[in-house]
From TrEMBL:
Residues 11-78 form the Reverse transcriptase zinc-binding domain. It comes from Eutrema salsugineum (Saltwater cress). InterPro entries: RNase_H-like_dom_plant, RNase_H-like_EbsB-rel, RNaseH-like_sf, RNaseH_domain, RNaseH_sf, RVT-Znf. This is Uncharacterized protein. Pfam families: RVT_3, zf-RVT. GO terms for molecular function: nucleic acid binding; RNA-DNA hybrid ribonuclease activity.
C-alpha cells in the first residue's frame, strides 16, 4: 500500500522519475527524495534519533531540499553548471524542486542529452554528501559537475554500445574499491529504528561504491532476523529490504557484538548520526 508521502507525489512527477533513462539506483534515489525517505538530518530526528540535524557544511537543518537545492555548496554547484535556466532559489518543498528539473537544460556542447545533466548533478550532490559524512572526503563544486558530466557521458556511451552490438566488443569491468567497511550499529533505540538505520547505512554504502561490508550490532534480535528466513515480524518490510540490500555486496557478514564490546557504536549513539559509522581500513 502506498504511503501518504507516495500518494502526494503528482502523477506527472511520478511518471517522469520512473520513465527516466538512467541507472535504476538514480531513479530510486529521486523517488526516495520525492517521498522524503532519505536519511537526512531532519528525517533522522523525525524518526526519533537524538542527532544533530544540521548540514555538515553550513549547520542549517538538513532536509533533502537543502542537500539538492538550498545549501550554499549546492547553490555554487548549480551556478557553475552550464544550464539554460537555474532552479529557483526559494524552493521549499522537494516536490517543487524535482518538478522543476525537467525544464532544466544543459547548454551545448556537453556530449549528452540536454536534460540528463541536472539528474546526474542531483545524484552527485547526494553522493558527495555521503562521502563527506561517512568517508570525511570533501569535493569542490567543479568536481561535482565534472563527475556528473563524466557519468552522464559514460551512461550515454553504454547505451549506444548496447544498441549497436559488435562481434569484438571490448568490455571493461572496473574493479571494486579495495576497501573493507565495518558498520557498527548500536541498539540504543528499539529494533525498528536500528533496522532502519542499518538499511540507510547499506543504501549509503552502495551509493558510495563500497563492495564489502561487515555489520556489527549489539542487537542479537536484529542479527538473527537478517540471517533467518523469518517472515512473521513487525519489521518484516525493513528486514526484507535488508536481505535484498545485502545481495548488492560481494562480501558481507553480520556479527553480534555484546554492548560492552561495541563501545564505539555505543559512543556514537550519543553523537550526530550515531547509528551509522564507517571505518575505512
Ligand atoms: Zn548546508
Amino acid at each position: 500500500m502506498a504511503s501518504t508521502k507516495e500518494r502526494e507525489v503528482p502523477r506527472a512527477l511520478r511518471q517522469y522519475i520512473w520513465n527516466l533513462r538512467t541507472l535504476p539506483k538514480v531513479k530510486q534515489f529521486l523517488w526516495r527524495a520525492a517521498v522524503e525517505a532519505l536519511p537526512v538530518g531532519v528525517e533522522l530526528v523525525r524518526r526519533g534519533f537524538q542527532v544533530d540535524f544540521g548540514c555538515k557544511i553550513c549547520g542549517i537543518r538538513e532536509t533533502i531540499t537543502h542537500v539538492l537545492r538550498v545549501c550554499q555548496f549546492t547553490r555554487e554547484v548549480w551556478t557553475l553548471a552550464l544550464l539554460k535556466a537555474h532552479p529557483h532559489l526559494n524552493s521549499v518543498l522537494c516536490l517543487d524542486f524535482l518538478a522543476f528539473i525537467p525544464s532544466l537544460m544543459s547548454l551545448p556542447p556537453t556530449g549528452i542529452s540536454a536534460t540528463s545533466l541536472p539528474i546526474w548533478i542531483c545524484w552527485n550532490l547526494w553522493i558527495t554528501r555521503n562521502h563527506r559524512l561517512f568517508a570525511d572526503t570533501a569535493y569542490t563544486a567543479r568536481e561535482v559537475i565534472s563527475e556528473a558530466l563524466g557519468e552522464a557521458r559514460a551512461w550515454k556511451e553504454a547505451q549506444s554500445s548496447l544498441q549497436k552490438p559488435q562481434a569484438s566488443q571490448a568490455t571493461t569491468t572496473l574493479p571494486p574499491p579495495a576497501i573493507s567497511v565495518i558498520c557498527n550499529v548500536d541498539a540504543t533505540w528499539h529494533a525498528e529504528s536500528e533496522a532502519w538505520a542499518l538499511r540507510e547505512a547499506l543504501f549509503s554504502a552502495i551509493d558510495v561504491g563500497f563492495d564489502e561490508m561487515q555489520v556489527r550490532s549489539d542487537s542479537q534480535v536484529l542479527i538473527n532476523l537478517i540471517n533467518s528466513q523469518e517472515t512473521h515480524t513487525e519489521i518484516y518490510a525493513i528486514v526484507n529490504d535488508l536481505r535484498q540490500l545485502v545481495l548488492s555486496f560481494s562480501l558481507i557478514s553480520s556479527h553480534y557484538v555484546p554492548r560492552l564490546n561495541n563501545v564505539e557504536a555505543d559512543t556514537l549513539a550519543k553523537n550526530a548520526l550515531r547509528a551509522l559509522k564507517y571505518q575505512v581500513n
